[in-house]
Amino acid sequence: MKIIQISDTHITHLGGTTNENAERAIRFINSLQADLVVHTGDVTIMDPDRDADREVAARILAGVEAPLKVIPGNHDVGEPGDNPFGDRPVTSERVAAYRAHFGDDRFVELVGDWAVVGIDSELFESGLPEEAEQWEWLERLPEVVAERPALVFTHKPIRAPRAEQQDTHLSIGSVAAPRLEESLAKIDVRGYGSGHLHHYALTWLDGRPVVSAPSTAFNVASETSAELMGPGLSQLGIVEWALAERTAKPYFRAPLDLEDAFLLEIDAVRAALDEMGISLTGLSA
Ligand SMILES: [Fe+2]
Ligand SMILES: [Fe+2]
Q1: What is the DSSP string of 14-61?
Q2: Per-residue pLDDT at 128 exceeds 80
Q3: What is the CATH superfamily name and number for domain 2-275?
Q4: 93-99 long-range contacts, CB within 8 A, separation 24+
Q5: Is 171 within 8 Å of 160 (Cβ atoms)?
Q6: 68 pairs with which residues across the strands?
Q7: For residue 199, how far is its CA from the centre of ligand 1 (angstroms)?
């Protein structure tokens, strides 16, 4: 069994490097013949209010030949907490616009003997009705997953790389995270995958792999981000999850033709940020 995780494609109606890299990554993914492909969010470039970005993203993602499931990132639906990026808080309208293009913002997919679970990290601590619905859905998860080994995907990591940095910008918030972990303790989670940090890192939690997926779009590494995000590999790529029995093994994979670039070196990123009225210095993903 093979699950491919792709993340942080940051596709835009303006075209350019991020779109071309997403297309290259998808060609590579198709050559790997996965049983399921999971996109862990930040599908679109920057602004969760641009339908034009969503339309182009949906068209590019339609190139994935295996079954595809997508969960949203902060650039797709906005984010919870104080000071959301670009003054775009997560709202019911933004979640609805996302769902109209990419389907539900959470899922359980039964693949062979496994259950693959996708959760919308941006709803936690939002206070939206969609958050309450997701908690209820999480309560019912053990009935659906039953005894199956499970992989759990979120856009933001459940735990921040450093405990003192647990907040809604970098990870799931400090109030929701322990409650989510309590919910997930009722199923047999064999691996965790997230995006958002734009670097590959493999750590362990109770003997289970915890993977931060690389982006396919751009790198954000800097001295400050390293302090914030912990050590990781700043190279564009994807994650291949090899599943056997009740064991999940993650592997960093990258096609040779991905064009590595830093966030602000990409014209479309600068244009998207400019349209949002965001200053181009001191940014993270
Ligand atoms: Fe991202
Ligand atoms: Fe993100």
Answers
A1: T-SHHHHHHHHHHHHHHHH--SEEEE-S--BSS-TT-HHHHHHHHHHH
A2: yes
A3: Metallo-dependent phosphatases (3.60.21.10)
A4: 94/48, 94/49, 95/120, 95/123, 95/128, 95/130, 97/48, 97/49, 97/51, 97/54, 98/48, 98/54, 98/72
A5: yes
A6: 37
A7: 10
The CA distance from 9 to 69, in Å, is 14
Secondary structure of the chain: what % helix, strand, coil (to 5)? 35, 25, 45
Tell how far the Cα of 179 is from the centroid of ligand 1, in angstroms.
Answer: 25
Which residues on adjacent β-strands are paired with residue 125?
none
As beta bridge partners, residue 122 has none
Ligand nearest to the CA of 10: 1
Taking the centre of ligand 1 as the mean of its atom positions, its distance from the CA of residue 60, in whole angstroms, is: 17
Reported residue count of the chain is: 285
8 Å CB contact between 230 and 223: no
Q: How confident is the model at residue 281 (pLDDT cuts 50, 70, 90)?
A: low
Max CA pair span of the chain:
50
Amino acid at 55: E
CA 169 to chain centre: 13
Of the candidates 140, 185, 71, 278, the one whose C-alpha atom is nearest the C-alpha of residue 177 is 185
- Mean pLDDT (the chain, rounded): 95
CA of 213, nearest ligand number? 1
